[in-house]
Amino acid sequence: MPTYPDAAALKAALDELARLPPLVTSWEIFALKKQLAQAQEGKRFLLQGGDCAESFSDCQSGLISNRLKVLLQMSLVLVHGLQLPVVRVGRFAGQYAKPRSTDMETRGEITLPSYRGDLVNGPEFSAAARMADPQRMIRAHSRSAMTMNFVRALIDGGFADLHHPEYWNLNWVGYSPLAAEYQQMVADIGGAVRFMETLAGVEVHNLNRIDFYTSHEALLLPYEQALTRQVPRQRGWFNLSTHYPWIGMRTAALDGAHVEYLRGVRNPIAIKIGPSVQPDQLLRLIDVLNPDDEPGRLSFIHRMGAAQIADKLPALLEAVKRDGRRVLWVCDAMHGNTESTSNGFKTRRFDNIRSEVEQSFELHAAAGTRLGGVHLELTGEDVTECTGGARELTDIDLERAYRSSVDPRLNYEQSLEIAMLIVRKQRQGRRPGS
């Protein structure tokens, strides 16, 4: 947790934040929880994706709409290929905080507080920028609200209309080797919609909008607590900063503040689990966070890395299955596959991401459990941050368009390729929901 030098200023900011309107509603939270419960049963598939860490400067209409387009296109591929409804969750509108392994950063002879995301301080390496500023929580609320408002307006205005999926294209998609396959899929869906309407003699309704939810890491507890409220005619407390908060393993100590906080809210929640997690630790977390085995309540997002998943995941799957506990298993194939290149870039190799996704399906099938979703860091921009993929990006390509200030993200093509890979993998193996 950051250290705020002015306790009075922190209290004033939190008091102001507590008076501001919430960002989501309890009925949206319940709707998402119901859909996640269906994903646990194999009746839906979760697609959760977005930026590794949002910045205040990224609150722009073009960046937001492109991010939404990518997720819509990926969900279109998944719905068409898996023949399942997709739960769409954006990793944005609140992903402004990032965990840090050390409190301080040293460059040369100068040591300053680490950059903890725009929710806390600034990325510039200066004493003024790196000081924890509580007013940034107010700015984060404002930008989260603007992002959610724009996304809702796009969706309500027909941005996701299945009568015109071609509207979701990004300008440079035509250059992708995957373009022909995707365009054929779009044509098939458009033809199917027109056929249904011709057969029925009326327009098919509810194809012009979708359900869309938001998620972020519940890392900065003062911010999360200020937006945790009670609502009329409902028992308990709700985190109204997001629909779907999660925490990482470094904040998942059983006696830690983050687990205690999540225990007390009625949102669906998720825990990131890495290769160091032991089966008994996982079972104790379930006991604390979902003692009543409530459907849709708890997700485990495993992020083992392609080299370790086959050794580390099976024991966890077996323990939860043997205990008869109800969780949604999700694969994060990004965080366990981060590496540095010889030319100084932090990257992820597409082959490793693909391998972890493929192994996840295989390991769940072998254990008699179900992989119910994927969690990805991605962007709608034409960046070069992860190597490999359809255009076979190399380490040299990273220099062309590396824009992330924190972690490398899949670009549009690579994200779409992952969606197509999931479909192919499921078709090769068991049927979804079986």
Question: Outline of this structure?
Answer:
With 434 residues, the protein is α/β, with parallel strands linked by helices.
Commentary on this structure:
It is a single chain. This protein is an alpha/beta fold. The chain folds into 2 domains: 17-90 and 214-428, TIM Barrel (Alpha-Beta Barrel); 161-208, no CATH class. It has 12 helices and 14 strands. α8 links the parallel β8 (244-247) and β9. The longest helix has 22 residues, at 61-82. The chain is globular and about 65 Å long. One of its GO terms (molecular function) is 3-deoxy-7-phosphoheptulonate synthase activity. This is Phospho-2-dehydro-3-deoxyheptonate aldolase. It catalyses: D-erythrose 4-phosphate + phosphoenolpyruvate + H2O = 7-phospho-2-dehydro-3-deoxy-D-arabino-heptonate + phosphate. Its cofactor is Mn(2+); Co(2+); Cd(2+).
